[in-house]
C-alpha cells in the first residue's frame, strides 16, 4: 500500500524518549569525564565605568584553572561581538564584548570568566574577584530614554539607535479628508522567553586533529559554528557544532554568539580539556534577552462604514543596552501591524532606543503581538466610535480572497516586498464567530449580568509572515538496509521536526514512516543552514527535505528500471519496494541502494551481493560521468519571499466584580497555515502558544526599578500561568489556503498561538468592564485600580463630520 502521511495526525516519534526521561541536553554532555566547569562574574550595576578588576585572590585558589577579564582577550576575541543583522537605518548599532571592556551597561553584563574543577569552586572564585566601579546614571524605560537627560552610550545622541519610516501615501491628507478621526496611546511592557532550559555550551578540543567540537543549546548551530571559527581564528572545517535536545528556545537562543559560546571553546582549546557552562535561572533573567516593550501613538481616519482611510502610527521600541539582532523586532511590528487589513494610506515611524537593561532579541511572535495589539485595539475603538459590531468593522477592511497576491506596499524584515501570498479572511471570520458563539453572546452576557456576573468577549485577527529565507537544505540517504537517513541543519526545540520531516520523506519516497530517521542541528551531517525561528521550519526545511527526497527517488527509479529491465514511468514505490505496475516484478529499495554503489568485492547473498563487474550495461562505466555512487539526494530551498499564515482568536472572560480576578470561560482559534502536514502537531503548537499568550497578557512582565535592577529575576517572583490558568480546552478550526511559493503549499504555524493574545484579552476585558484597556499585560490589581478611575475617556478624541466638511482644527 502506498504511503500517504501528509495531512495525517501521526503521533510524535520523539515523545516516548522525553516522557521517559531519556532526553539528552547540553548539560548531559561529557558528564563523568575530566570536564571543567565555567562561571561568569556579572555586573551588579546597570551603568558604570570599570576602574579596576583585581583577580589576585583567585589565582592561587585550589581547583581554579583559568580566570579571564577583557585584558586577557586578544585579536578578534577582543573585538565587539557581531551585529548579526545590520540595517541602513540602524546608524548607531552597538554590541557588547565577550567580557566588558571599560564600561558595563546593564545588570548581568559579563565581566570576568573563571574555569575550575567544578561549578562550586568556580562560583567561589567569582566571589573573590574585586571590581571597582565609577557609577554612571542609568537610563531605564522608554520615557527615560526619550527624555535623554542621560545617555546609555556617550557616542549615541538622544539614545536613538535607529529611526525608520515607511509609508504608502500622503497620510496627513488622508486623515484630513476622513469623516471620522480618533487617536489612541497603547503600551506593551517587557517580557521574556524563560525556556525550561537556559543557555548552555560545552566544548572539547582535540589537539591531535586540531578539531573543536561544540555542543550548544542554540537555535542556529551553523551560525554558532561560523562565529566560533571566525573569533578563534580556525578554519570552518575545524569546527563542529552539535545541538542536542533543547528545552525550549522561543527566540532567545537564535542570538549568537553569546559570550559563553566563544569563551568556553577558547578555554577548552587553551586548557586542553573539555569545558562546560550551564546558565542558572537568575543568569537567564538578567543576562540573556527580553522583548515586547513598546509605546505606540495611533491616529486613524475612517468613513461611516469603519473603513480605514488613513492610519498613522508612531512607536518607540526599547532595545536594551545593545543591538546584536538589529531592528528585526520593530520592523516586524511596523509591517505586520496591518494584519489582514488594507488601509487606503498607511504611515509608520519608529525610534529604537537604548536603555540600561538587558538587550532585545525576538521572543515567540517577534514584534507581531505588539502590532496585532495596536491594530486590533484600533479596530475596536473604531467600532465603539461608530456604534458598530466589531466584526463588521473588521470585515469592511479585509483584503478579499480574489485580491491575492496582495502587496501592502512595504518592505518586510527579509528586505522583500510585503506581499501576502494567499488567504481567505472573510471565511476565517465566519468560522471564528461560529466557534466562539459571537452572535449568541449578547444574550449570554445579559443572563450573566442578571446573576451579578461580568463577562466580556474579544476578537483579534492577525497575519503572520513565515518561512523567511534565505535558505535551508537537506540530505536524504537511502541505506542498503532500506532505512532512510535524513539530515537538515535546522535545529529543533520540541516542535516535532523528526516526525513531520519523516512524514514528508515517507510520502515523497514511498517508504514506511518507521524506516525514516531524521537528524537536525548537527553541522557534521548538514554543514549549511540558517536556523529555527520565524515559523520557518516546515516551509524551509520541509520543502528542502521534500526536494532532496525527490532527488533520491529519481535516482532510485533510474537504477531500479535498469535492474528490472522496465521503463521508469512504469515503476512505483510503496513500503520501500520498487515494483513494475501490473506485474509481480519488484526490488527492495535497500537492494537498489546496493546497486547504486558498485563495489569491487562481492558479498554473500544476505548482504545483497553486487560488484562492479555484475552491475549495469557492460558497455558503460559502472558510474556515469554525471553521477556519483550511493543512493542519496541533497537539495536546498530558497523562497522568493515569505509566506503569510493568518488566524483569528476569540475569548470569553469573566472578571470578578470584587477581586478583579480574570477567568477564561471559552477560547477559540481559527488558523490558516496552508496545507497541514500533521494537524496534531499544528494544534499542539497552537495550544502551547495560547498558554504562552495567556502568560504574556495576564502575568509576565520584567519589573525594573529606576536603578536598572530587575526585581523579579526568579520564578518565585516572575509570574507565569499554571495549568489552572490556561484554558481547559481550546476550540480549533483550520482553513487551508495553500501557498503558491513552495512545493508543499505550506505556511508556518509556530507563533500562531501567541500573536493575538494581548489584543484578544484586552478586547474581552474591556467588553466586560465597559472601558478600554490601553496597556498590557493587565493584572487584577491594575484592573481594580482602573475601575476606580473609570471616569477616564475610552478614546481621547473622536471627530465626526459630514462627508465633504472640513475637520475641526486642533484635533490631535
TrEMBL record:
Domain of life from the UniProt record: Bacteria
InterPro entries: Ald_Oxase/Xan_DH_a/b (IPR000674), Ald_Oxase/Xan_DH_a/b_sf (IPR036856), Ald_Oxase/xanthine_DH-like (IPR016208), AldOxase/xan_DH_MoCoBD1 (IPR008274), AldOxase/xan_DH_MoCoBD2 (IPR046867), AldOxase/xan_DH_Mopterin-bd_sf (IPR037165)
Segments forming domain Aldehyde oxidase/xanthine dehydrogenase a/b hammerhead: 20-137
Gene3D superfamilies: Aldehyde oxidase/xanthine dehydrogenase, a/b hammerhead, Aldehyde oxidase/xanthine dehydrogenase, molybdopterin binding domain
Keywords annotated in UniProt: Molybdenum, Oxidoreductase
Descriptive protein name: Xanthine dehydrogenase family protein molybdopterin-binding subunit
Organism: Nocardioides bigeumensis
